[in-house]
Design a protein that fits this description.
236 residues, Mannose-Binding Protein A, Chain A, 13 strands, single chain, 2 domains, 4 helices, alpha+beta
Length: 236
Amino acid sequence: MADSIKSEAHLALCYWMNIEEMEWEESRHACQEKGGDLISLDTDEKFMYLQEAIGNDNRTYWLGGRKVSSGWTWLSGVEISLESPFWHVGQPDSQSQERLCSGDCPDVVGFHFVQHLALCYWMNIEEMEWEESRHACQEKGGDLISLDTDEKFMYLQEAIGNDKRTYWLGGRKVSSGWAWLSGVEISLESPFWHVGQPDAQSQEHLSSGTTYFGSFGMDDESSSTKRSSICEMTRK
């Protein structure tokens, strides 16, 4: 077996992760020189195995998928459904792109990637005021997180678990009420507010944390309060 090629018996799969950056055709030629081809993730099992194997690797890899007259297909000949759950949100997004790649978060230390949410996030435990926290996120190319879907909120709820810190979020008071930095309105009827929140007309920004009873939810606080923070970043 060629050097650096790995084998997975339960998938009848031999694969090699080439970290040298090349164009798609060059990458394919490098595979063919070793007697293979760019990988076709033509079963759910292969995709999920590679997803786990790559882990927190922040590189983006060429795959053996390409556009054909009828849509998209793997080099193995298996059609790639546009309804596949393995597309990132909003993908494929360009008629001019003809090859498939797969990647995680931009190459910034500390960010974690959540595949099913297409979410890159970083939990900054250093306590700062709201504006300082936002600046720290922006310096990394992101912003304070907007928990603008139930799925994102519930994922972070589970990820934080029993962590007793309180984190700044990307929510703030606007003339019409409350909104995330993404522009999505925050309903006062949201089930994610802590009981009795928001409770002060003078508080202008949102934090989120656990109580000693372990319930995770949102509070309004003064922006001068020093808290940890959660940032998010757009995947490249």
